[in-house]
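Entry: tRNA modification GTPase MnmE
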Amino acid sequence: MQQFEPIAALATAPGIGAIAVVRVSGEGAIDITNRIFKGKDLSTQPSHTAHFGTLRQPDGTLIDEVLVTVFRAPTSFTKEDVVEISCHGSDYIIRQILTRLTREGVRLARPGEFTQRAFLNGQFDLVQAEAVADLIAADSEASHRSALSQLRGGFSRKLKDLRQQLIDFVALVELELDFGEEDVEFARRDQLRSLMVDVRRVLHPLIESFSVGNAVKNGVPTVIVGKPNAGKSTLLNALLDEEKAIVSDIPGTTRDVIEDELFIDGIRFRLIDTAGLRHTTDTIEAIGVERTRQQMEKASVVVYLFDGAETTPGELRRTIAELEEAGKPYLLVGNKADLTLDSGRQTLDDIAGKGKIIWISARDQRIDELKAALSLRVRTDSAVQTDGALITNARHLEHLTATDEALARAINGLDAGVTADWLAMDLRVALRHLGELTGEITTDDLLDSIFGRFCIGK
Ligand code: GDP
């Protein structure tokens, strides 16, 4: 545990609010605050206690009435002495407090510096530290859930354990190298092999979860395509109107509905290229048209909408073939269920396969089954296989992939009977990437680039 020089920053969002919190952390944080605080002697107060009093200028002028919370090392977020000053949420007061603190020898914190200290003091690993940023930025239930799972150690704990086992093996392999010419084998090759296979088995679902993880964080790009008059703009409006209704039902919310964004089961869907759908003269044509292809290119999920009453069996068959060829996950949606005869529906269902067509009526707002299917599409993709752990960060993906590749080389080498020095080389690469992932190996550059992306006060 280390106590660094004292730093301070506004921990709440800048701007006017009922209260604001200024956080001070580091060596002497409590004593320094005590020098400007009147009302109680903070230096004798136990950890995790709150105290009412005033902050004053050196000449005794009142800055504000405040509530000060004291956290003593090591039971604080940074594991240092921490004071949180809750003051009135005025920019002027905040500036006065920060200036007063800097005059007492406190430095203004850099972006992410509190979290960086927490990491350096072993509060959590790097993946967890990054999850702090994600958690704060999370604005949907799914991204919140994923950040929270990472913050709790999610996949990094498991990887750290496997890395330790690999380290033990590498030590044995390297010991063999010391014996040079002699033909010794300390590391049981069969055990090493099965360990590497196990590690790869853990890595794969995580690597695959990136596309979903990314979607959870940034929204799932979704496109609605279909022939003119299929009902695409009606569907778009039905989806978005419902969204607007939900948002305006939440009392006190001022958040505007973001154009063309939709939340289903806490997952964010971004409806792309909807401008054309708004104007019926410019509707997206059926697939096969170049523009539609380009739009499908940008999407993770394609909603193919057709008029159930008008579509012939032959047409549906061709459409399915084209969608399959495009290779994108798609949902086959039969619109105007209200106009479609049971017999017609039956014929089309038989062609597509049982339960494949999702029947809706966009005009009547009967679209729940489509929404359920969209949500299911994302959730079943991979979150289940990883116990909910999702990779949402490109840095993590890079290290996981590099580890996996190094292990694949090591396994191939092992099977081909390569010498211990070759084996050790690939294993070391794998260990380095795993170590950088969780932060057991770090460089200042890496830490600066990760924590520099946080905002001040975190
Ligand atoms: P787009 O060209 O694919 O955007 O299709 P529109 O949304 O403009 O719809 C074409 C026509 O179909 C409009 O007259 C809609 O009112 C109508 N329509 C859309 N959805 C339904 C539905 O579920 N049932 C019925 N009966 N008509 C619908």
